[in-house]
Here is the input.
Amino acid sequence: MLKPIPKFIYSRANQILMILFVPFFAFVFINIYRPLDFVTMGESILSGLGISPELSMQLVTLMMVLSGMAVAAISRMILRAYTNKRPISYLGYIVWILGEICTMASIYTLAALFTDTEKSIPELFNNSFVKTSLILLIPYTMCYTYFVWQENRRELRTLRKQIDDDETVLQRAYIQILDEKGEMRLSIRRENLVLIESADNYVCVYYLNGDKTQKSMIRNTLSRVAEHLQGTRVVRCHRSYMINLDHAKILHRDKEGIFIEHGIEGIPTVPISRTYSDNIQMWIADKC
Here is the structure.
């Protein structure tokens, strides 16, 4: 009970919502169930105006609800000022609500003194306190439930966004190699992927696993893999090869053509064809 209540319970927006909703609920509730004897009050207070008992009851109900709304508004402003300096516990919040109920019950007791002179003040206050508690605690509970539900929704949206962001980061950090059915068969960190080689209806993926070079065969064509990896640093340099430009170390030419070496044991030297030479310009530009 001494644990501080969450700040969203008494946030500015939620307090305004509560101040507006509680009087509306109270007005409807009083008119339906009539827990307070506002008919007698109306006949006594407004008898000289020549209006019907039903209308007089409505007017008295409205005045009582507006007075309660004023009490709630002042109370919530004081509560906000208080909680700006220090947190309030669940026990403190319950005591605060009891204070609001007592204040409103006192107002209703004063109004009842004009119409019910047979009862003592303690009896009138006890009757007003019980019925005011009934009128207020129902909407207060509804507001609290709504605030908790609203906050849980907000936290869920935040969590989903965080998960989506984490998935995006993971997708950027890893490269997925799909098979011919579009199912993911291999997921490798971008910096560990070195080379992809065509082998008929398969591709051979060369990658680093610690200090060792490993390779994995996946049933798919190099063209489909290249299409999936478009926009990454893994580019096609030959009809039979794709390379990760971040691992390319040496570009050399001999009588048989142009080749790229990776300087990694177990990784073959890769030829560069004229068809895909533009892709290698990216690597050359980075090195210049």
About this structure: The first helix runs from residue 12 to 33.
